[in-house]
Amino acid sequence: MRKRHETVELYVSQAQGHQATGDYRSALKSARNALSAIEREPVSFEMEARVLLLAARNAYYLSGFDECSIYLDMLGELIRFIKVDAGCERYEASVIRANILRRHGEYRAALDELSDIDGSVENCLAGSLAGEKYLIEGACHYFLKDTRRAKEILETALGLTAGVSSWKLRARVLTMMGLVLRRLGFMRKAADDLRRAAAACSKNNDEYGLAAALLNLGITQYHVGDIEAAERSVIKASSLFERINWQIGMCRCLIALGNMASMREALDEALELYSEASRLAKEQAYQRELAQSLSGIASIHTVRHDFTSARNCLVKAQMIASEIAPDGDLAAEVTRKIGELEILEGNIHKAMYRLEESEGMAKGQDAPLELGLVYRAMGRAETDRGNLDTGKILFERSRDLIRKSGSTYELARTCLKYAETLISSNRTRLSSCIPGKKRTEEPWSLLWEARHLFTGMNVQHMVDRVDFLLGREERSNTTSLMVDVDDAVTGSGLIEISFVHDYKVCDGLVAVSPIMQDVWDRIQFAASYKGPVLVTGETGTGKELVAKLIHNSSARAPGPFVAVNCAAIPDHLFESEFFGHRKGSFTGAVIDRRGFFEEASGGTLFLDEVGELTTLHQAKLLRVLQEGKIRRLGENSEHEVDIKLVSATNQDLGSKLDDSSLREDFFFRINSERIHIPPLRDRREDIIPLLSWRLCGNGNGTNGRTVQVDSDVVSIFQKYHWPGNVRELISITDRLSCLANDSPITINMLPDRMRGDSTLRPDWNSQQPGDCSRRRLESAMSLCRGNKSAAARWLGISRGKLYKELKKTGLYRYYHRTT
Predict the structure, then answer these.
(1) Pairwise CA distance, residues 651 & 461, whole Å
(2) Measured CA angle at 68 (ends 64, 74), to 5 deg
(3) What's the CA gap between 300 and 296, in Å, rounded?
(4) What are the backbone angles phi and psi of residue 530, rounded to the nearest 5°?
């Protein structure tokens, strides 16, 4: 008997070891061996229950839901026939069974399973199991559209997992929290949580947790338009899921990769990925994943104008979505796609019925992205049936919501669809309600915003599509303005720029990009947060402006704002400057003096260039940052100071930590909350708003005026790499304003470094030197508005060769007439 017990315990120990490292297949094998040994020689109830739960959990991890259910049923029978208190075993069994129901998409059934548990049982359990219960509840509420409730429950789960130091479960909760934050539009915060989850799992060799975090990180990266990084994350996740045979994860990876292939317009590849996901979902009864894959297949059929096949797939997907969550996010998405299909088939009345139904679902989900997509489709439908002004309002509403959601890809598509609608419809009626704008300026600005966003995503087919429309629009501008393109090498098409107050997020912050909207959200949080804030970013991005906004938005606004350049403080004056001194404490101390900390008490102390502080200086600041107390030079008593600390640096503090030039204890005291300001080249949609603010807004004392600018100047502003960021843009804009003196701003007024910048050459020119294909010629001529001298310079060839190539491709006569 004892020998048998030792054998079972050995198998159990092996199973627990394999489970801890993520080797669930080996863990299940050891658990099965333990059950076989128990059949030959009975053991205690506690041991058998332990083995059954171990086998059930690892079968669940391997998607063996039927086998898992068998073990749970055996445990139930064991509890029923043996009259013992088994509350804890029932609790864990219910948690596992609820997980199975969740994986099958039966979210309400999973919540019912957990609600039957006696709350008093939690006292006899480790916090990790209670944390898992809250994780399941949070996930179910997420899929049942109650996103805010899901966030609250997951925050509770994070608290429980922190208390028991369960890094594995904590990583899973962080992953689920990433999904919730992504739906709420906090893409950057979502990515941060998912990276933290991935790092914890990678450090502890948890392949399942790492794969789940990477998959969701990839989906988040996909939404913000970082397609290459997204594909790398999902491919790595897929290989990990395959290694541990986690089939639902493999299915989800196939769907995500299908979405990315579709985004790249690799339709055959996308269809193959969606079809494989559909096959796997059918085999394993993954209802949600089956509906998602069918929705993806329908999108491919729609692009190929096979509307019958698309409708069949969407109807099947809708039936599944209605069964698992009638008002959930998936149901809203599928219903919207049916509405979009009706628009393409010309059934506008049916389309609006479907879209209004989807709108009702989306409004109850705290999901700005899905609601924005619904309004985009409604805008198209209203425009198609002649309600142009209503269509415009819906498109604007859609753009605002999608920008708020942080989905760069969908924002770019919305700008493009909006511009296409303006171009194809009666633009006079649509544009007339926007004061101070030319009829062709609105679609032009939309197309340029779409182009910059698509360029950053490396989706060339979408850039080409925008370039084609830009060519049409720019030729239209040239014609309407009666510009003689032979007057200047680069053309002389003038556009009028005026400042739109919607560009201003708040006083002092001008931006329209989603990434800067997120920075504003972080500023607002930092203003209400009592801890220290670290602001990072390249030189010229506006770190001091962010510090002032934090101060002005906080309850400390009436107090002082004291800015200190740490790089300018001499070593021998450091303590005197920061802490103050008493008269006579050293030679030259002829009066009592307060230091920076006392001056800022009741307000905000801003430490600029904090990375320049030496390790000795850092050590001297530790106590005041921790305790809020300072001691002047020459005094024995301490003074309390009440400050909000905001620090800023353009240095890589991670590398300074690595080479020990930055103390860890100091770093953690100043980095409680972090705000990163992206460089201007990574948020090019903010360039024109900043230009108009400086020229026409309150940026340099002017307000409400309209300025004429050569369209080539605007183009160069958008393409320039801006090494000095916003500071450089302001300097150049002020120079242009002075040079122009109320006359039009032309390209010859730009600094030489901008006119001669090699980065201004189009991507297709640098990638294919010497290529004079028809597509490339069309792009060059469109960009230069038919000016052959300018086009030849863009292409890097002589004007004579350009004429020959135009004649060879049959384009000469067309562009001769246009000119």
Answers:
(1) 37
(2) 155
(3) 7
(4) -80, -20
**pLDDT confidence of residue 253:** 93
User: How many CB atoms are closer than 10 A to CB 730?
Assistant: 19
* Strands of the sheet with 673-677, listed across from one edge: 561-565, 604-608, 644-649, 533-537, 673-677
Identity of residue 349: H
> CA 116 to CA 715: how far, in whole Å?
64
CB neighbours of residue 118 within 10 Å? 9
Helices (H), 325-364: 329-344, 348-363
- The pLDDT value recorded for residue 95 is 85
In whole angstroms, give the CA distance from residue 124 to residue 275. Answer: 47
Burial state string for 481-513 with b = 16 or more CB within 10 A and e = fewer than 16: eebebeebbbbbbbbebbbbeebbbeeebbbbb
Number of helices (H) and strands (E), helices first, in the chain?
40, 13
H or E, element range at 610: none
For residues 813 and 329, which has the higher predicted lDDT (pLDDT)?
329
User: Half-sphere exposure of residue 538, counting CA atoms within 13 Å on the CB side?
Assistant: 12
User: Residue 238: which of 186, 276, 184 has the closest Cα?
Assistant: 276
Residues 6+ apart with CB under 8 A from 326: none
Burial of 175 by CB count in 10 Å (0-12 exposed, 13-18 middle, 19+ buried)? buried
b/e 694-719 (16+ beta carbons within 10 angstroms → b) = bbbbebeeeeeeebebbbbbbbbbbb
State pLDDT tens for residues 76-100: 888 776 655 556 777 888 888 888 8
Q: What is d(CA 444, CA 461) in angstroms, rounded to the nearest whole number?
A: 19
716 vs 758: CA distance, rounded Å: 11
Burial of residue 668 (CB within 10 Å: 0-12, 13-18, 19+) is: exposed
Distance of CA 333 to the CA centre of its chain: 20
What backbone phi and psi angles, to 5 degrees, belong to 117? -75, 135
Q: How far is CA 110 from CA 96, 117, 766, in A?
A: 10, 12, 57
pLDDT-above-90 percentage for the chain: 19
